[in-house]
Amino acid sequence: MQIRYFERFGVTEALIAETLAAALSRGGDHADVYFQHRVATDVGVEDGAVNRAHAAVELGVGVRVVKGAQTGYGYTEDVTLPALLECARTAAAIADGPSRTTPARLHLAAGLPDRYPLVRRWEDVRPDEKLPLVAALNERAFAADPRVKKVNVYLRDESGAILMADSSGRVVEDEQPMTLLFLSVLAEQNGRREQNGYNVAGRAGFEFYSPERLDRVVREAVARTTILFEAGPPPAGEMPVVLAAGSSGILLHEAIGHGMEADFNRKGVSIYADKIGKPVARPFVNIVDDAAPPGARGAINVDDEGNAAGTTRLVENGVLATYMHDAISAKHYGVSPTGNGRRESYRHPPLPRMRATYMLPGPHETEEIIKSVKRGIYCANFSNGQVAIGAGDFTFYVKNGFLIEDGKLTRPVKDVNVIGNGPQALERVDMVSNDLAIDEGGWTCGKDGQSVPVSQGLPTVRVSSMTVGGRGS
Amino acid sequence: MSTSPLLESTRTAARLALKKGATEAAAGGWLARHVEVTWRDGKIEKVSEATTRGLALDLYVEGRYTAVSTSDLRPEALERFVEDSVALARKLAPDPHRCLPDPALYRGQAEVDLQLEDPTHAALDSATRRRLAEELEAAARSVPGADKILSVTTGASDTRAESALVQTNGFEGTRRGTDFWISAEVTVKDADGRRPEESAASGGRFRDRVEPSETVGKRAAERALHRLGTKKGDSAVMTMAVDARSAGRIVAALLGPLGAASIQQKRSFVEGKLGAAIGSPLLDLTDDPLVVRGLGSRLYDGEGLAARRFPVFEAGVLRNYYDDTYYDRKLGIAPTTARTSNLSWRLGDRSQPELLRELKEGILVTGFLGGNSNGTTGDFSLGVRGFRIRNGALAEPVGEMNVSGNQLELWKRLTAVGNDPYRYSAMGTPTLVFEGVQFAGN
Question: Is there a contact between B64 and A194 if contact means CB atoms under 8 Å apart?
């Protein structure tokens, strides 16, 4: 077996085999060892100068032992046999029985998909190429509108890989690049200030930054900021909510995504815990969590337990279909893992997590949807969201939007939190357009102290009623 | 000054930075032991145990600056990493405001034993952690109404951490600390199919600061059971009391824009407002890094500056920003410190029940859900849950609601501060009462 990436850190078949043997020395059902190397660099502009850079190297390894639904975990930054054996023995203690034999031969998993082919690898991109890119964006943002007073630009790139080896003998290596560009703008008008921005992210190399994408970053960052001078809070209370195509996928992430992560259901603490096979939405509603959008921030070739990552169908024709599983929950439910077992880093055991969550196109036209609303809001851009898994209440924060009055977009609105209840909001999705867009932004999902990169998407959708955290009536 | 292997390796890293071409440098090393036991419904769910380490370097290279960190401490790898980082810095534009702090700011550290390390930490074994977690669940399941409990997840965790800071213009420091936490989360079944959850946690730098597991487990279960029957209330402008445990969310939205980077970049609704009244006279709090056994206590900050108490708000008036030396040079002001330590509030003399009796009608917020606060304009909109207050007493639970407004108006409407600072956060927030807050619901 040929270890490719991690050979440089002294990782050998023998090192892995000895670690796994120690991990199963107390009789665990399953063990895995997860190596990670990640090199992140960012360069930034503030007050007109490219005068700051950061670099972060993470090298470490985690050893997990599973016994039933119980997990033992140890990790270290020291990639040597003695340190790994100590982690393995720590993790092994979750079980308390006779040793289990480990596989005689490790084998490298073949045939991984290639969802993030690199043209310009970040290791090969010199600072002399990155610095002019951010400097030019700074100048273009100032040139775009005289009201722009402050601009911050950050370009981040990550290269590196993971290696997962488990007690079935399976070994998986995957190189996982990432990049993120963030342009933030502060503008002033008549003594008032507003700040907003735009960001793009993907698993890609330097080629990600096409002229069209860079144009869009400047245009959107400035437009999303300056429109705030005309915007105010919408009224407070329940009203129809129309979600624009793209980043509005945050609705799915919070209203149903987390609640469909199988660990919460296995424990009986999700509001969706007894709803599989039951209708939860109109028949034209189809929701998936997909590992495959090429180059997407949430794309993965393989999950962090070494399982094939495909498309998990959460809602099929309005019926709740499949939970997102890691190995523990898949075993509990007697189903195949869905490739949703992900971890932030070697410091954490995997959990069922989302990748790219979106709704498939529906039967309505976008204009028809807006026209149908007498008085409501249209939500275009978002900054964050949250959900209470068991109560089902969830929120998303709207950074830019519009009032809808008599079927037309009228006054811009800003800074408003929208709150709903997951199953109820899904039931109330009563129109879905055919304009699905998967957002290109740098979304990060947090759960149980672990952050992972995700993507989200939505066609234009109408929710017949949600509570809008505005002011007045 | 005492020495330790960590201080030695941090000194070596600082010397390496100079050798590889940095004009001056700050090196920060850390080493931590963290153990966590999670227990759920009668058995162990997860045990995680690790010793973790890392190194951060601020490199100042002929007027240029880069900040880097690594967990790959193999000597050859570290040497190459520092070389690459210095080379990266050389490509950047010079920044005249970047340099290590004036060494005068290192002097005058308080001569007090902060007692941040519990000497009994080493005696804590896995059987004890497991027993705590087990007791928490048993306590949660012992309360009246426990038959509605669907699941109980509890945990016990502890950390022993050591860090060293070496700055090549004359600062060296080390510190060690411990902390201990227990927590319980309880999910209950409601008649309408919802499964509301609530939690409780307790902890501190010393084991004897942690409340008995029985108290914490029961508190989590009682809180969860009190959520049964939650309904959305009506949209209205009402008095809002914010529970001490939850108030940190709204205080953080006020303090974030006090950071010097926000001020200098004009992304702050308090920019230019030093000396101005931001809140009612009841808004009165001090940053106090010198609390014995405090969760946020320290003798020096992340830049090596000697830690001092300073007023943040006095009788509603903004007295200081939170500023590091870099943004101070840009702004031309004197530094305080970049990050909050412990907040010490001028407390009121009434308990939460007394405050609720007095305000008669309103909502007690016991948890926030999502939402955000715009640091530039002060506009906020936050999801909330809690209880309706009727005739001065807690009434039905409410949820799926939202509060919104502007921070500059909100803090002027602070009409009461409780006598009940939350002990399990360095923010130490008491119950806060605000008049005339916009709630959105039905």
Answer: no
pLDDT tens profile A320-368: 999 999 999 999 999 999 999 999 999 999 999 999 999 999 999 999 9
* Interatomic CA distance for residues A354 and A88, integer angstroms: 28
Dihedral sign of CA atoms B290, B296, B300, B305 in order: negative
Which residue out of B69, B195, B373 would a mutagenesis test of the A interface target, given it has the greatest number of A Cβ atoms within 10 Å? B195
Number of H helices, E strands in chain B: 9, 16
Q: What are the structure tokens assigned to B314, written together?
A: 């006095």
ipTM over cut 0.85: yes
Across the interface, of A390, A417, A469, the residue whose CB is closest to B196 is A390
DSSP for B308-325, written as a single string:
--EEEEETTEE---B--H
Among residues A218, A215, A187, A181, the alpha carbon closest in space to that of A200 is found at: A181
Residue B404 has its nearest CB partner, among A152, A270, A471, at A471
List Cβ<8 Å contacts ≥24 apart for B143-147. Answer: B143/B218, B143/B221, B143/B222, B143/B225, B145/B225, B146/B221
Residues of chain B whose pLDDT is less than 70? 1-2
Q: Do the chains contact at A52 and B95, CB–CB below 8 Å? A: yes
Taking residues A11-40, report their average pLDDT: 96
Q: Which of B70, B195, B372 sits opposite A57 (nearest CB)?
A: B70
Identify from B84, B130, B225, B376 which residue to disrupt to test chain A contact, counting A C-beta atoms within 10 A and taking the largest count: B376
> Exposed e or buried b for every residue in B324-340, given b needs 16+ CB within 10 A?
bbbbbbbbebebbbbeb
- Mean pLDDT of all residues in A419-425: 96
Q: How far apart are CA A311 and CA A292, in angstroms?
A: 7
Are residues A267 and B196, on separate chains, in Cβ contact within 8 Å? no
- Enumerate the residues of chain B whose CB falls inside 8 A of the CB of residue A393: 369, 383, 385, 399-400
Maximum CA extent, chain B? 71
Best mutation target, B329, B381, B382, to test chain A (most A CBs within 10 A) = B381
